[in-house]
């Protein structure tokens, strides 16, 4: 399987500049070679074009979703690129940028995949907000909800009409910052979660066992893995928009990612929310590279 690296240089979904430099910063320190170390075929598709707009116009297209027009147009381009990659038998590895890119990724996966697929979302946040529940109006807090078909049609109809993933096929791990409205959505739609409290109580090993068991029971053959670096403990990632304490340690995160990729079912991946501008002493850069090495090694193992 060829790995296709796709950059998505956008900050409009989190409304805090800096994350748009994530893909190029990671290329600068050897992103492509890092994948080539363990994988024979790696191509860099470059960056998706993002329409630019002045921050004073963030509410120009919607009163409660910031930068709606630009988030949607960029994600439609991303969806097409992801769809093409999968249809060619390649694995799209989308590097953000903020997590609103989940909208485009999942629309692309949906368009390229006939059967149901699972989404594993590793994140401190649930990203299940709809316009009415969002405390911020930031679309990076909404991609999973919209992909599940919830909320405003302006997001749910992106690229392909309707629901991209069934709520029962969504698995969120690392949660520790969930908005009230998101709690209701998790309950109502039976979304599977492993919060940090669960992981601390039962251990990562057990969480992984439970996760893989549920997925194997579902019969699903395609997993989309969406990795938000703010799932790591705040002290490892000062350079991310919304760091949260009491998060994952490297060892736990690496074990989780390796086990998920080890199933051989992961066909598409996102890696998001690294902000080189707000980083301190390259801490977040180093954390990102260290995690990317794990992705590369795990993919190398199933690829060989
Ligand atoms: N992808 C992320 N980092 N999302 C953070 C979301 C924070 C908050 N729940 C919001 O909706 O505004
Ligand atoms: Mn996120
Ligand atoms: Mn997050």
Automatic annotation (TrEMBL):
Enumerate the Gene Ontology biological process terms: arginine metabolic process; urea cycle
Q: Where does Mn(2+) bind?
A: 99, 123, 125, 127, 228, 230
Q: Which cofactor does it need?
A: Mn(2+)
Query: What InterPro entries does the record tag this protein with?
Result: Arginase, Ureohydrolase, Ureohydrolase_dom_sf, Ureohydrolase_Mn_BS
Tell me the keywords, alphabetical order: Arginine metabolism, Hydrolase, Manganese, Metal-binding
Origin: domain of life:
Bacteria
Which pathway? Nitrogen metabolism; urea cycle; L-ornithine and urea from L-arginine: step 1/1
| Catalytic activities | L-arginine + H2O = urea + L-ornithine
Cofactor binding, per record: Binds 2 manganese ions per subunit.
Provide the E.C. number(s) assigned to this enzyme: 3.5.3.1
Name the Gene Ontology molecular function terms of this record: arginase activity; manganese ion binding
The record, for CDD domains, names: Arginase
Q: Which Gene Ontology cellular-component terms appear in the entry? A: cytoplasm
Q: Which family does it belong to?
A: Belongs to the arginase family.
Annotated protein name in UniProt: Arginase
**Source species, please?**
Proteiniclasticum ruminis
